[in-house]
Amino acid sequence: MNRTPSGLRSHSQKPAGTLVPGLVALLASLAAAQAQDRVKPYAVVREAIPLSLTGKPGDPARGRAIVANRQVGLCLLCHSASIIPEEQFQGDLAPDLAGAGSRWKIGELRLRIVDAGRFNANTIMPAYYKTGGLTRVGSSFAGKPILSAEQIEDVVAYLATLREVKK
Ligand code: HEC
Fold first, then answer.
1. Does any ligand 1 atom lie closer than 6 A to the CB of residue 103?
2. What pTM did the predictor assign?
3. For residue 137, is it within any domain?
4. Domain for residue 9, yes or no?
5. Residue closest by Cα to atom 37 of ligand 1
6. How far is the CA of 77 from the centre of ligand 1 (A)?
């Protein structure tokens, strides 16, 4: 699936594990161009966002494509994902996403993607649906989340399907 948006500069792929702060900034600058919608309010209840950001369930197949995509989600810069074997150069800075849907409830997955800092204030994982309090985002992207609400829901729907840990 080719979802590369217009306006993105091409960039060389580097193995994850190098240049993390630069990668995070790159991630933010590449991906922030994507989400055109502003962050809408959401309620955090006990370390989770129980309700869909869009009011609808996401699409797991679209979510998988976002997770695998090097210009949209960039999840694989940091995470390995043994369930996406076709993508080379997966990261080793973060847990394998396999089994994430067994480890976390769907509302916890949603909060994790929206604002991972709510779980770990020092995390290197970007807050994908947040506009305040970001320190590594280019100022021209202030005010826009990295992923849209629809994209967040698609990613969450995909992660929720990752029930078993494969080794
Ligand atoms: C810059 C590195 C980085 C990127 C990019 C990143 N993450 Fe993470 N992620 C982490 C780290 C590190 C952790 C471990 C816990 C922590 O530090 O918050 C984590 C934790 C998680 C967890 C919980 C892991 C578990 O099962 O215990 C999930 C789920 C997750 N990330 C999903 C994603 C998804 C989906 C994306 C892309 C939309 C993504 N991450 C992008 C670094 C990253």
1. yes
2. 0.80
3. yes
4. no
5. 75
6. 10
Point out the least confidently predicted range of 12-16, 25-29, 63-67, 131-135: 12-16
Q: Is 67 in the pocket of ligand 1 (CB under 6 A)?
A: yes
Q: What is the CATH number of the domain that holds 78?
A: 1.10.760.10
- The residue range of the domain holding 134 is 20-160
d(CA 166, CA 97): 10
pLDDT tens per residue across span 104-154: 999 999 999 999 999 889 999 999 998 765 555 555 556 678 899 999 999
Tell me how far apart the alpha carbons of residues 137 and 25 are, in angstroms, rounded to a whole number. Answer: 6
Residue 129 lies in a domain: yes
Distances, alpha carbon 162 to alpha carbons 11, 78, 94, 129, in Å: 30, 18, 16, 22
- Looking at the 3D structure of the chain, how many domains does it have? 1
Q: Is residue 139 part of a domain?
A: yes
> For residue 49, what are its two tokens?
């966002």
